Amino acid sequence: MKFFFTPEFHRNLWLRFSPFRLIAAPLIILLIAMTTTRMPKGLGDFDVTSTLYAALSIYFIVVIIWGAYEAANAMQEEIRGNTWDFQRMSSISPWQLSLGKLFGVTSYAWYFGFLALALFAYAYADYRAPEQFFGEQNRDSPFPEPDNDTLYILFCLVASGIIAQSVAYLYGFADSLAMFGRIWRTKVPRGIGAFLVGAFAGSYVFTYTVMHDSVRLRPRASLMFQHVDIHWYGHDYERHLFVVMSLLFFIGWFLIGSYRIARAELMYRCMPTAWMLFVATYVGWASGFVPRGGSGVGVEVGAFHAALFAYIQAAIIAYACMFAEAGDSRRYARLAFHLKAGDFLRAFENTPKWLATLPIMLFLFFSALTSATGMEKVITLPHGSAFMASFMLFMARDGCAIHAIHLSFRGRGTGFALMFYYLIVYLLLPLLAFTSIDLNLSDVFKSVVRFKVPENVGTVTGTFYPTGMTDTSQSLFPVLIETIVTAGWLYWCLSRRSNPAPVVIENTKA
């Protein structure tokens, strides 16, 4: 409860609430309830009341859409009002800042949303019989107790709103600080990207849980029209319990991410250990959905496919971080400075996220190779091993090229140069090569995606895309040459650039 007594949370409450707003929300809910209760039951093919559907629609619009928009623009309000520097110099803790700002700027959306939840509970109780909605009645209490299905729906409604707002807030926080750090004070970002990402995340959770389980109801049936267990790591888990635990997992990490970025901005020391733990736990969670075989070779093949899937996810995360952090020359300068000084702890603090992800990626790579040992009889395994090595080389090639482009093109020309690079190496040059030798594009697709290597594909496909061909001269040798060339380009760019001693501003708070 200490969070609710923070100055940041109270400040946002004073800014968001007024007597008119306090009265307007319940008045709107009351008018909607009076209007929809006079409408006939049934909505298309679904046996639901108009009030029930209206309550869900209001909650979705107010909490997920509007709440995500408010959270995405939370930091921009501070930058516009020139209050962010004052907050950074205050004694507020990172948790108080992040949670107070996240739930403070969305406090009115939650006030409106909880009123919509009350309308939803009323409409749902009217739709289902009281004993079906509340469950068994306790003799010692005049009110029946809610059943698990009802609590599940209410939890998913709240969780979808928290996920939408926390994702939008985290994305908008990072985006606003990136613009603010470059002293683009006249170009305040509008937070459209953060709003869209947050709204999409919340909408996905809302659709997968609430709309799937509460709207598609059979008349007077149980809340769940079918209870399907979730198969995870070879075991079956009850769907409601698994969804609840997964939502808590992601909510926790999104809140930790908000805390970590606030901690860094308040000049506390931040090591990438939390990021590494997030990547490890996320890929572990996601790879559990890969099907396992029943027995014998099938089990070993399933273990390899799970490791391969986890490796691909870690590689994609590392690639995205590398693309986003390639232009952060100050971080690289601090990292090189501390490495030369022998201060490895400070160097670890300034390690980019993509470098911190590489150990996890390499661990999964060797884990997949170990699980594939002795499985030569399975056709897909050698191809999968070759694909992992090819993917890693392509990532190294693009990484060298991206950093070289950032060193060569500064300012506004960097974005166009990156777009030009990807357009050339992944579209125009491959099409030119394939059409010049009359290669069927369907054969190329099979060699890249399905690991089936037609005889006429050969080295051409392995030159432009990661493939699973077992012949290293076709899948690995061409991209290895390209990686060496781009590494030479990066070395040449580094040698041309002057290297004055960087101005190191250290985080002094423990």
Structure description:
It is a single chain. This protein is mostly helical and 510 residues long. It folds into 2 domains: 2-137 and 145-268, no CATH class; 293-496, no CATH class. It contains 22 helices and 2 strands. It has helices spanning 7-16, 19-36, 50-72, 74-80, 84-88, 94-105, 107-127, 130-134, 148-181, 192-215, 239-265, 273-287, 297-325, 329-341, 344-349, 353-371, 380-408, 413-436, 441-450, 459-464, 472-475, 477-496; strands at residues 230-232, 235-237. The protein has a two-stranded antiparallel sheet with strand order 1-2. Strand 1 and strand 2 form a beta hairpin. Helix 1 (7-16) runs parallel beside helix 6 and helix 13 runs parallel beside helix 17 (380-408). The longest helix is centred in the first third of the chain and has 34 residues, at 148-181. The protein is globular, with a radius of gyration of 27 Å. It starts with 6 loop residues before the first helix and ends in a 14-residue tail after the last helix. The model is unreliable at 43-48, 129-135, 137-145, 180-189, 215-226 and 376-382 (pLDDT under 50).
